[in-house]
Amino acid sequence: KERREEEMKQQRKEEKEDKISAVRESVAVTTADGNGVDKGAEAPTEAPSGKKGFFSDKKFTDLQICDPLKEALTACNFTTMTDIQAKAIPLMLKGKDVLGAAKTGSGKTLAFLVPALELLVATRFQPKNGTGVMVISPTRELAMQIFDVCKRLVDATKLSQTYGIVMGGVNRKNEADKLSRGINILIATPGRLLDHLQNTRGFVYANLMSLVIDEADRILQIGFEEDMNQILKILPKKRQT
Question: The Helicase ATP-binding domain covers which part of the protein (predicted)?
Fold first, then answer.
């Protein structure tokens, strides 16, 4: 009996690992030279003199993005791109699906926020259009960190695109009211997002253009697999991921 239980435990572990691998593969992208975007790194501001570290030799001003976004990045002291940013951002600006892996503190947040904001600006997305970009994060703490960077960057652009966050432990009615008014870039935890998708009237997500799943492995590992399956069934299939 103990042996059987151990075999079943090992089988469940292998099945979970297979599902995590499937998530990785489902959002992987191959570049023109046949190499997927793999391990990179990041740092929030300019590289210290004489020290490259996580940084590339590319500047944010080299990107094909609107001037207000370039100016906002400069105002926030984001000048030199990190490796993951230099690899991922140009692909996302072209509309590619991207799977990226990078160490903590290597600049992943900007790697997806910059192309997300450029997409909203380029399409002239407005609050009346609802949500154009969703960022799903495994925990409240990580969601707040992403929201803080997003707020800082959007406020610096002085553009009309709106941003917001929905997560457990926060007043749901206030979130629903904001969603009904239109949140263009939405940061969310899986459980609360699914709740709003299923129950919040006035939440416009039919125009979704880009979905970001931050730390997808962790989302599955902490038990949000079923929520994510439901979310992906509800959201428009034609989108960038």
Answer: 89-241
Which pLDDT score, from 0 to 100, does residue 217 have? 87
Name the token pair of 60: 């944010």
How far is residue 168's CA from residue 157's CA, in Å, rounded to a whole number? 29
Give the SS3 label for residue 69: helix
- The helix or strand, by DSSP H or E, that contains position 80, with its residue range, turns out to be strand 80-82
Most trustworthy range by pLDDT among 49-53, 67-71, 105-109? 67-71
What are the b/e assignments for 27-42, b being 16+ CB within 10 Å? bebeeeeeebbeebbb
How many CB atoms within 10 Å of residue 101? 15
CA gap 137, 144 in Å, rounded: 9
CATH architecture of 53-234: 3-Layer(aba) Sandwich (3.40)
Decide if 34 contacts 97 (C-beta within 8 A): no
Residue 54 pLDDT grade (very low, low, confident, very high; cuts 50, 70, 90): confident
To which H or E segment does residue 128 belong?
A: none
CB-CB contact of 140 with 153 (8 Å): no
What average pLDDT is seen over the chain?
A: 84
Q: Average pLDDT, stretch 167-178? A: 96
| Tokens describing residue 202 | 């006035």
Which residues touch 8 (CB under 8 Å, ≥6 apart)?
Answer: none
Q: Which pLDDT score is estimated for 55?
A: 84
